[in-house]
Write a structure and sequence with these properties.
Layout: H1 3-36, H2 45-61, H3 70-73, H4 88-121, H5 127-146, H6 150-156, H7 170-174, H8 186-206, H9 231-240
Helix pairs in contact: 1-5, 2-8
């Protein structure tokens, strides 16, 4: 299966999941909130489908995949193709710049979700709305890949997803609201997401050469496994025409 087909299938599924959740929050929000907060033991097909799909997505990310973007897969050693020569000073500067970008992205995300957390603690929004926000993040993750990424354009200025410093933070960011949901099913979501992000960071500090186009030929446009699928490719095509 090609990356484009795989991404489009996920985009459609996540869109339908968000739509389903939105309808339920409007028509059956109190029951959904009661289930999420442990006040009700009733079964919800929607919550079961949402949880299984998100958990499967997390588990799949732990393993190498040909259908995933190189942005996610470059942490694995088999995707590292070292360049013939590297200027060590340029490498050190690239690492520092990437770390600064990651800290800026983290600060933005914490500020945004601090607002979400305050709204929940102040009882301005319900647990069902928290879940809906998480489902929106779930879809926004693919919007960033397919259409527009505010982190890329306004905060980090990376070329495309392939060189994104925080690519495998995505599940941790998606499930940030789950930290406030007092349900046992939320634990494996944020725990699995945190493990993915921690492994990513450990490999970044242990093998930074895998993550940078400066040192890894696999990240160059010429080596792209999915040409034409990222925003950078789309912009180049528009300029060419």
């Amino acid at each position: 299966m090609s990356f484009a087909i795989y991404t489009n299938m996920r985009f459609l599924f996540r869109s339908l999941l968000l739509l389903w959740g939105s309808v339920l929050c409007l028509t059956d929000g109190p029951r959904i909130s009661a289930i999420l907060t442990g006040q009700s033991q009733s079964f919800s097909l929607f919550l079961a489908v949402a949880w299984v799909s998100m958990m499967v997505s997390i588990l799949l990310r732990f393993f190498p995949s040909r259908t995933e973007s190189m942005g996610a897969q470059r942490e694995h050693g088999e995707n590292y193709r070292p360049r013939a020569s590297v200027d060590r000073e340029k490498l050190a500067a690239a690492i520092r710049r990437s770390n600064r970008d990651a800290l800026k992205a983290l600060a933005f995300w914490l500020a945004l979700n601090a607002l979400v957390g305050w709204l929940y603690v102040a009882r301005k929004i319900s647990a069902a709305i928290l879940l809906l926000i998480s489902l929106f993040y779930n879809l926004a993750d693919l919007i960033c890949i397919k259409f527009f990424c505010p982190f890329q354009r306004w905060i980090m200025s990376n070329r495309c997803c392939t060189t994104c410093r925080i690519y495998n933070w995505d599940h941790m960011m998606i499930h940030t609201p789950a930290l406030l949901i007092p349900h046992p099913a939320a634990i494996p979501l944020w725990l699995g997401s945190a493990l993915l992000a921690l492994r990513w960071e450990w490999r970044w500090y242990r093998y930074p050469e895998r993550f940078l186009e400066l040192t890894n030929e696999s990240l160059a446009c010429a080596a792209c496994r999915h040409p034409g699928s990222c925003q950078s490719c789309v912009r180049k095509k528009k300029k060419a025409t």
